[in-house]
Design goal:
single chain, about 575 residues, alpha+beta, five-stranded antiparallel sheet, 17 helices, 16 strands, elongated
């Protein structure tokens, strides 16, 4: 039979158990004895892996002396009379791949030497300690709550399943998305730093620091300002875990004073690979900003993420909160004093996450978050200076990973209420959305063709935030407008845009790992990308890009404009769901 280990063992190597009639009781289960004659026997070794590797080293342990071996794959070395090493430096084994070969044992005497132990790349593949079990089918752990017309609580729960599916590095024991395993464990090795962890950006496997830091900031914002909604849904702990998965990675990426690694992986190389992140062996170069090659937008947004998270974790872990707040202050100073758009330093990012809006919005955004975290009025003064220098009160047309101006309006109105410019700009922006922005015929505010749903959810979050914290004369109008946007996304047009949620949800998101079948089936032969059926794994909770300007949408895996998913898509969307729960 085939055994697959529990979550703990998914971090390592599993053995496929083979039982032969008449097998000796102590024989390693991955050894099948086939034929025996005087002084010789044929055997077969079979073991599988849930972590890919190039090349293997197998050490066999016998219970009595062995004369020699014949192997037809790789080479063997006799360590001593009872230990034989077999190596093959050229074999690639992917996730779920099988090392399977035959060999012949030569011995002296009447009793054959039994193989009582075997390791594959240092891991015991006989019984190793963990218990054997079968991998249970992955089902949605987020139960329906009966909320109508849409189950906001279930959708919020599922949003954090999506973030678990996007995790890179060593996965924790409480990982709920069981078709994902450890991946990209060599990230940072090219520059001598441990840069494992963090989130894969979208349907691909690059770790882009700029949108990732925005994601952390906005997730933290929703948790801070709609805590009752999170508590009612039972998602506070999961939300905090999602934020901390990013900030833990950012701590690793801040390797020296004013040195921050802002990207791992290269867009062109990565996008040429359609497969599991667990199987990646392409080059994943690391890129940084530092004093000689700065990046004010990246440093500023990461400072905002750390500052927001420091407030979030102050009660639970004050030492952690203090650590990341100190880094936030340093990164803000770096952003302010060494000014340059980050894509001039991390040049590969220019084709994927160029900072079109410049860095003035991130400087003000970070200063306001630092004021909220510290109470230091110096940061309010800095935010006002940035406002004037970069004319931030003009031309806000969206709220996104790139353009934070509308977020500055909202946050500034909260922490600097004596400065009417923020409240005035926020009201004008929300009025623009209601009265002057472009809409699809069925009512989605259409701010950008790329990821139209994410842009609608982003501003719906701001409108719900204003309904709670802004001018109360507009509160009901802001709440109802935002609810209309969210209901469009959740199913008002006859289908949901959230994978696994509601009526007729997307089944073919542009997302590599969920499109891959369970190992040992291949995911690099073109089938996963091009087959017409649903993705083998349901990417619960992921918000897909959304409709075109005429409301048209087709659930096609190759359509990355309308059917890709991304970490930033779900950030304000999560906060908006919590707000709907709280304000409903």
């Amino acid at each position: 039979m085939t055994g697959v280990l529990t979550r703990t063992f998914l971090l390592g190597v599993a053995a496929l158990l083979h039982t032969a009639a008449g097998a000796e009781e102590d024989r390693c289960p991955c050894i099948l004895l086939k034929n025996e004659w005087s002084g010789n026997y044929d055997a077969e070794f079979t073991a599988s892996t849930l972590q890919p590797f190039f090349g293997y080293e197998i050490i066999l342990t016998f219970d009595r002396p062995v004369d020699s071996l014949d192997v037809w794959q790789g080479t063997y070395e006799k360590i001593d009379d009872t230990h034989i090493k077999i190596t093959d430096d050229n074999l690639f084994v992917g996730t779920g791949g099988v090392v399977d070969f035959s060999f012949q044992v030569h011995f002296s005497g009447d009793v054959h030497p039994e193989i009582i132990g075997a390791t594959l790349n240092g891991v015991d593949v006989c019984d190793g300690g963990p218990k054997w079990t079968t991998l249970y089918p992955y089902t949605n752990p987020c139960e329906e709550t009966g909320m109508r017309p849409y189950d906001y609580s279930q959708a919020l729960c599922m949003s954090f399943l999506f973030y678990e599916a996007q995790r890179s590095g060593h996965l924790p024991d409480n990982q709920r998305v069981t078709w994902r395993w450890d991946s990209a464990l060599d990230d940072g090795s090219d520059v001598g730093h441990d840069l494992t962890g963090g989130y894969y950006d979208a349907g691909d496997h690059v770790k882009f620091g700029f949108p990732m830091s925005y994601t952390a900031t906005v997730l933290a914002w929703g948790l801070l300002d709609f805590p009752d909604g999170y508590e009612a849904a039972g998602q506070t702990a999961y939300g905090k875990e999602a934020v901390k998965w990013a900030t833990d990675y950012f701590i690793e990426a801040y390797t020296a004073h004013w040195e921050f690694w802002g990207q791992v992986g290269q867009g062109g190389i990565d996008h040429g690979y359609w497969g599991r992140p667990e199987d990646m062996y392409m080059e994943r170069p690391s890129a940084k900003i530092d004093e000689q090659a700065p990046g004010s937008d990246l440093a500023g947004e990461t400072a905002a993420a750390f500052a927001a998270a420091s407030i979030l974790f102050q009660e639970d872990d004050p030492a952690y909160a203090s650590q990341i707040l100190d880094i936030a202050k340093e990164l803000y100073d770096f952003a302010d004093q060494k000014r340059l758009e980050y894509h001039n330093s991390i040049t590969d990012a220019a084709a994927f996450y160029r900072s079109w809006s410049g860095y003035g919005d991130e400087l003000a955004w970070a200063a306001l978050w630092l004021n909220r975290a510290t109470g230091d009025a110096t940061y309010l003064t800095k935010a006002r200076e940035h406002w004037d220098e970069f004319s931030l009160g003009e031309d806000a047309l969206q709220f996104s990973w790139d353009d934070k101006k509308a977020g500055v309006y909202a946050l500034g109105s909260l922490v600097d209420p004596d400065n009417a410019q923020y409240e005035t700009a926020l009201k004008a922006f929300l009025d623009y959305l209601k009265n002057d922005a472009k809409y699809t015929p069925k009512g989605l505010v259409f701010l950008d063709m790329w990821g139209s749903n994410r842009h609608a959810a982003n501003v719906a979050f701001l409108s719900l935030w204003a309904a709670k914290y802004g001018d109360q004369a507009d509160a009901e109008a802001n709440r109802q407008w935002a609810k209309g946007q969210m209901h469009y996304i959740l199913g008002d047009v006859g289908h949901s845009f959230v994978v696994g949620f509601g009526v007729d949800p997307p089944q073919r998101p542009h997302h590599r790992s969920s499109s891959c079948p369970l190992p040992p089936a291949s995911c690099t032969d073109g089938w996963a990308q091009n087959q017409d059926g649903p993705n083998p794994h349901v990417l619960y909770g992921a918000l897909v890009g959304g409709p075109a300007e005429d409301d048209s949408y087709t659930d096609v895996r190759t359509d990355y404009t309308h059917n890709e998913v991304a970490c930033d898509y779900n950030a304000a969307y999560s906060g908006a769901l919590a707000a709907l729960i709280e304000l409903n």
